[in-house]
Specification:
heterodimer; B: mainly alpha; globular
């Protein structure tokens, strides 16, 4: 249990997807203009990550790594398909995003209206593929660890985008030097937020 | 073949270096741009890889553009990009293994690099193969020079080296009490440096300044 809590704290605060790895920056900068839309995108990212990363973990474990195919027949024990991981991961993400979109549309139209426009965007959000690739690198021992990891990463991303949106709503009325207006000041803001998040380094329970 | 470097194509190249720069103006492909700029060598390898993938995926998609059904174009584009990235990844692992280790997941993340998807959607789906190829190279270079500048500053001030050559040590600054700025290696400085580059670029070309 403690190990899960530590992993969670680590992914939310220390190895935050935005502030430590800069993943999902494109939509992070483009959609963070108002708090309302960024809450929607944040929830959609958590949702998609929690589903795709464990699925990719299982595929990786039972299909891709060296010797993974031995559950089919012992003859396949020395097959190594790990070079295919990029294409499998991105296909799984694109397919699941499509599937989630259809399921949500069918069973919860109100949630669909809230997330609707953001869901297709997420297929190409680097945070989701990045999460899958970091999951591959971290070599988790069980699927539950990958669930904790994906929830933590998604939540970290959501916290980052919501807080940036809140700051951007405030600075709309400030007097910023003209060439720095818009994108420039946003970069510097994110830099300062990342600096603040560095304070969590080494934090453990 | 007089049209190979016609003025239009030359414009495609130079525009993306400055006025249509993918990072500072179009805001595409920032994820990987920031993460690989601690040292110059990985940044250079990353810039070359992205240029190659951008150019060839633009070329392939542009050749296929009339036969791709609109509804499934995203998945077709992703498959083409992913196949090219696998090639690049295997080549990097074979010839420059140490750099490939440093880049870690960011080679794989070229797949979701918004520059490539963005240029495929915005340019290659509607233009001729050769133009698209040039556009891919131009955008790759526009992405590359920002990477090189950011990594030059970060490596020089953060580790005191340029392309692993110990400049600061040769200049004898350490004996005079000079210290490397450890903050330059930390992630936040990449963001602030890109912010500063945007600031300089926009003060020079006023047309880029955003309206209130």
């Amino acid at each position: 249990m403690q190990n899960h809590i530590n992993l969670f704290v680590d992914t939310v605060f220390i190895h935050n997807m935005i502030f430590a790895y800069f993943l999902g920056m494109c939509s992070y900068l483009a959609v963070s203009k108002t708090v309302k839309t960024s809450v929607g995108l944040g929830i959609a990212v958590i949702f998609v990550m929690v589903i795709t990363i464990p699925v990719n973990y299982l595929l990786e474990k039972y299909l891709l790594v060296e010797g993974a195919l031995s559950w089919i027949s012992p003859k396949l024990a020395d097959v190594d398909l790990s070079f295919l991981s990029f294409i499998i991961f991105i296909a799984v993400i694109a397919a699941i995003v499509q599937l989630v979109e259809m399921v949500v549309e069918r069973y919860s139209p109100s949630l669909y209206n809230a997330l609707g426009i953001f869901l297709p965007l997420i297929a190409v959000n680097c945070a989701v593929l990045g999460g899958a690739l970091f999951m591959q690198q971290r070599e988790f021992s069980s699927v539950w660890e990958s669930v904790t990891f994906s929830f933590g990463s998604g939540l970290g991303w959501a916290i980052a985008i919501i807080s940036l949106a809140a700051i951007r709503e405030k600075i709309r009325y400030s007097n910023i030097p003209a060439p720095l207006r818009g994108l420039g000041i946003t970069f510097i803001l994110v830099g300062l937020m990342a600096l603040a998040f560095m304070g969590f380094m080494g934090f453990k329970i | 073949m007089s049209q190979i470097f016609s003025s239009k194509n030359l414009k495609l190249l130079t525009n993306s270096l400055n006025l249509q720069n993918p990072i500072t103006v179009q805001v595409l492909g920032i994820c990987s741009a920031l993460a690989v700029t601690v040292k110059m060598k990985p940044a250079f390898v990353m810039a070359v890889s992205v240029t190659i993938v951008a150019a060839f995926s633009n070329l392939i998609i542009s050749l296929l553009r009339k036969s791709i059904p609109v509804r499934i174009r995203i998945i077709v584009q992703l498959v083409v990009i992913a196949a090219l990235v696998i090639l690049v990844d295997q080549i990097l692992k074979a010839f420059v293994f140490d750099v490939s280790k440093q880049l870690s997941v960011f080679v794989g993340l070229i797949i979701t690099n918004c520059i490539i998807m963005g240029r495929l959607e915005a340019f290659a789906m509607a233009n001729k193969p050769w133009d698209s190829f040039v556009d891919g190279i131009g955008n790759g270079l526009g992405y590359g020079w920002i990477l090189i500048v950011v990594s030059f500053v970060r490596e020089l001030l953060g580790s005191g080296t340029v392309w692993n050559y110990p400049v600061m040590e040769k200049l004898g600054l350490y004996s005079g009490g000079y210290l490397n700025n450890g903050l330059m290696i930390a992630p936040p400085m990449a963001l602030i440096l890109v912010g500063v580059i945007i600031w300089i670029q926009r003060s020079r070309s006023k047309s880029l300044i955003e309206k209130k």
